[in-house]
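Postdoc handover notes: sequence design on the structure in folder B. Input tokens:
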């Protein structure tokens, strides 16, 4: 595998800029809240310090551990997964990232590295639980992180929450909270990129809900409308404030937000559904209301 340069300064110098990234075909789907908070994060000194420190530690410690335990995906090894990666890369117009299968039993995936040299890690349990179409959604979601210049920040948050915070939690906590606030919005952007890859709302929602359940057997018994009613229960509970410390929005919010995006003119245009649909500004305004923790 090519050497990954995790120098934050070189990363900033090499970036094409948010404007050019959004000008690429497909990047217009990005959630406005993600872009706004990401711009603020990029100029926050505690974040830049955290990025500079943690990516160096990632390079020296965690990257080696990953390569020693995970299995690389390629044309001759897990070729069907390799084909899914190629499909998503083509759809989103990004260079195909290297993908690894990790022997972890949690239903999860993550993208690490930099925008110039990113890798995707799929936990083996995820591959076992999802259909090929659902796995395409997950791969598309992770490729969305690459397309939208999220990767150096997802790497930082991953490292801070999995290792560094064990030693310097009191120092990195402000950075963790800020990155989690951004990440909740970034996940909405990447749920959209997953849908753009599948072009099937039911498949993408099924993928999300299976992640929430942790069971492929129980999915057939779930009533999606009943599940989404949990949104109203959350809004009325003081426990909703716990979401402030989460890196992902609660799953009912993500499902509802994806449904709103599917009603938008951008997605309807991709699907050749005869025009119409909500303007992107309206889509993002409705999603912002769904994501709100305070109201």
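Designed sequence:
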């Amino acid at each position: 595998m090519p050497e990954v340069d995790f120098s934050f300064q070189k990363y900033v110098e090499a970036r094409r800029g948010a404007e050019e990234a959004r000008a690429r075909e497909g990047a217009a789907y990005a959630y406005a809240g993600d872009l706004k908070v990401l711009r603020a994060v990029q100029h926050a000194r505690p974040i830049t310090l955290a990025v500079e420190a943690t990516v160096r530690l990632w390079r020296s410690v965690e990257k080696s551990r990953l390569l020693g335990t995970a299995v690389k995906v390629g044309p001759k090894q897990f070729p069907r997964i390799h084909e899914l990666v190629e499909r998503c890369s083509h759809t989103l117009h990004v260079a195909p990232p290297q993908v690894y299968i990790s022997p972890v039993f949690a239903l999860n995936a993550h993208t690490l590295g930099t925008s110039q040299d990113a890798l995707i890690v799929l936990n083996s349990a995820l591959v076992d639980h999802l259909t090929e179409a659902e796995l395409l959604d997950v791969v598309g979601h992770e490729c969305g992180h690459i397309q939208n210049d999220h990767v150096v920040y997802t790497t930082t948050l991953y490292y801070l929450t999995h290792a560094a915070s064990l030693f310097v939690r009191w120092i990195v906590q402000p950075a963790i909270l800020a990155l989690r606030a951004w990440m909740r919005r970034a996940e909405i952007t990447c749920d959209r990129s997953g849908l753009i890859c599948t072009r099937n709302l039911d498949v993408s929602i099924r993928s999300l809900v299976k992640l929430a359940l942790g069971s492929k057997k129980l999915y057939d018994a779930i009533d999606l409308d009943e599940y989404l009613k949990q949104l109203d229960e959350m809004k009325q509970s003081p426990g909703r404030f716990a979401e402030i410390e989460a890196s992902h929005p609660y799953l009912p919010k993500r499902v509802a937000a994806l449904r709103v995006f599917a009603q938008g003119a951008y997605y309807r245009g991709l699907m050749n559904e005869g025009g119409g649909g909500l303007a992107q500004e309206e889509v993002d305004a409705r999603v912002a209301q769904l994501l709100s923790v305070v109201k």
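Context for whoever picks this up: The mean pLDDT is 82. Don't rerun without checking with the PI first.
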